Q: What sequence folds into this?
């Protein structure tokens, strides 16, 4: 299979998305504490004003700001204390000119008041008399009703992942449960006569089933529910049964392995028998022998057997598909940083290349060092900080180029020990 | 409480870590598929060589490279085919000079062979005779035993978070279960007479309990198991009982709210009664009224009532403490990017300031725009992309400064719609 017979990465990505229905995973409601990391199934409107009342931001006295005009250290203003606002209680008292009310941080401003003077700029002469030694500007130390959130605001947009720091604002607006897309049910089938289970000791010529775990872990991180169906040996009837069962019980099926021509043939033949193959072969390195199709109307990816190639294709094709089925509106797939390249990287035009890199910090900016090694060596991805993409129209990258690195780790900064 | 009476952030962080025992959460074994995101409880050694045998990276013929010297399109070399290597089977046959063996990608090289010639550079004359039209270099198309991973390699270091893309290499080395630190049991108590449950409609003067949810979601993201104990009204006996129960049933306790002087007093008094207060007040904005101590030997944080201040202190003090208790070796807390500042930010020297920012991409680099707003407005953090830290020794930052931004979102790149 030559690269010329393969379709481009862009064409493959478009074809995959066009073959799917956005949000096919369905919707559910989850408890607010479990909402972070899930995808909003609708625009989450505030529905109310925050704060719901004019609120003090300090401990002090609520006043009418006009009453403080001209106040200073030398010429304090005199007001009568007519009560106090209790935390969590409404302020029913109407403040008249010349009056002040004690108020705690977070307390509700009484009507008639429009500012709060901090405790330290006041002096209480007796229970009824207050000296104020500083002018209060209108709305000083006050958050006005609706100033934080207005009831028409959208807190999280449909199709966006809910971030941990957005959970607070959802709580503030009364979302005890949140409508989200369901987690996608995915099934992984490993194939290959050379594979043995992770718990087994491989005999000569055998290797352990890596892909079920690496692909499973990456899909779980994306928010999927993963069923590892284990290893199906190269027996066609058994293989078709497994793919058929997986398609009937999942939203997405991944067939991993089968890097031999025979196993690839099985995958193509099985998908054709259960639905149809949409493409076979993509102009991507690593990842060329990728197969995509439908079985019982469910998307099925046949990924390369090489662990690194399988992970790269998962990242580029399967994760966007999973996110699309889970209702996501954007392809966003993590954090990227710009880095200076420390070495030349050759690449063939007409093919999208993905190269793993180490990322380091030099003089407040990032540098990227390609991890070279024979194709398929798993340490090249296990120790990588990120991946760079050399697009099909480029014939390689040069030392010093400023490149975008998609980070593989969920942290990246100078490590500071405890 | 003036900033002068407060201890510095650095002093607070050091005091917290010195008061704790690293790894106090304890250890357990988890299934490999669940290991990503967990912290390794020991150095995870490879224990075996990968590959465990010399392996072909292509479909072709295994040969002794010396037999191909001088081969070319015009002058092919002639070898006798003496068998084929089956996938997943050991190659027991010893290759003699002048012989070749058919081998699939991933197949085990027979002894006597040191290279593989790709199918496309061979021609099979009959079942026994092979023409080779290209020289094979020693170890061409071969991954040598141990070339990927050597048995003495450490795959994941003690105290490091296991990344999804490291799960594959653990599978390859036979880790069906992985020793990790247990998830930390944390309890959150909300205090404040003004608070009502998220499911309730606040009456005038009341607000919903935000912090249980925002802090809980952030701690869950850090890998903790969170128990929200709900709202304890400002009743001292009830409060002490709640803190005592929490300390006896958790590894870490968070008391949130109590921004009023009375509530702060309760927190200090309760911690003192159950153990002892270690500090009260930190020179951090926002976050000044932070309390830390021990109850029944368990760390207890009294966080500010302002939701944004509480989240900032959680990030700077509580998360590192949680990670330390979960055995983490480094303070790493996510991804940072460098960005040019788009506005001046004033700051008082002697105080560590944290300011939320929007991060955008302009001409292949990041720019950061501070989100201004009155202290405590929750939208300032809900819509933020990241946070910048103005250290105590600085008197503010200036437009154009290159600053480090700690990202709050787990994605950040130009959004590309499907």
A:
């Amino acid at each position: 299979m030559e690269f010329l017979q393969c379709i481009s990465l862009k064409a493959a990505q478009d074809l995959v998305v066009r073959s799917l229905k956005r949000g096919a995973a369905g919707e559910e409601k989850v408890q607010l504490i479990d909402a972070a990391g899930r995808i909003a199934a609708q625009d989450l409107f505030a529905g109310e004003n925050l704060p719901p009342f004019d609120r003090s931001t300090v401990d002090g006295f609520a006043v009418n700001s006009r009453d403080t005009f001209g106040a200073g250290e030398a010429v304090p203003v005199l007001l009568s204390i007519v009560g106090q606002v209790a935390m969590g209680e409404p302020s029913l008292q109407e403040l008249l000119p010349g009056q002040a009310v004690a108020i705690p941080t977070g307390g509700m401003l009484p009507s008639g008041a429009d500012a709060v003077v901090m405790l330290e700029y006041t002096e209480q002469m007796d229970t009824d008399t207050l000296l104020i030694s500083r002018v209060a500007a209108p709305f000083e130390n006050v958050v006005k009703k609706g100033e934080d959130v207005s009831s028409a605001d959208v807190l999280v947009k449909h199709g966006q992942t809910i971030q941990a720091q957005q959970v607070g604002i959802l709580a503030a607006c009364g979302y005890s449960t949140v409508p989200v897309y369901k987690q996608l049910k995915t099934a992984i089938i490993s194939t290959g006569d050379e594979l043995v289970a992770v718990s087994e000791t491989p005999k000569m010529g055998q290797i352990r089933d890596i892909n079920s775990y690496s692909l499973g872990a990456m899909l779980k991180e994306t928010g999927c529910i993963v069923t590892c169906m284990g290893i199906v040996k190269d027996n066609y009837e058994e293989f078709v049964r497994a793919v058929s069962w997986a398609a009937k019980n999942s939203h997405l099926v991944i067939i991993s392995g089968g890097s031999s021509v025979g196993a690839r043939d099985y995958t193509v033949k099985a998908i054709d028998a259960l639905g149809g193959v949409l493409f076979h072969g993509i102009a991507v390195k690593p990842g060329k022998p990728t197969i995509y199709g439908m079985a019982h109307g469910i998307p099925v990816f046949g990924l390369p057997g090489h662990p690194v190639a399988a992970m790269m294709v998962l990242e580029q094709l399967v994760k966007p598909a999973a996110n699309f089925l889970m209702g996501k509106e954007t392809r966003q797939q993590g954090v990227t940083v710009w880095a200076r390249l420390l070495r030349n990287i050759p690449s063939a035009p007409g093919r999208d290349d993905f190269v793993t890199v180490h990322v380091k910090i030099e003089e407040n900016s990032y540098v990227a060092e390609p991890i070279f090694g024979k194709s398929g060596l798993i340490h090249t991805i296990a120790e990588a900080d990120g991946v760079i993409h050399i697009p099909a129209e480029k014939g390689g990258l040069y030392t010093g180029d400023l490149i975008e690195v998609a980070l593989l780790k969920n942290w990246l900064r100078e490590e500071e020990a405890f």
Residues 208 and 237 of chain A are 23 Å apart (CA to CA). Chain A has four domains: 9-26+182-325, 29-49+159-181, 55-143, 336-416.
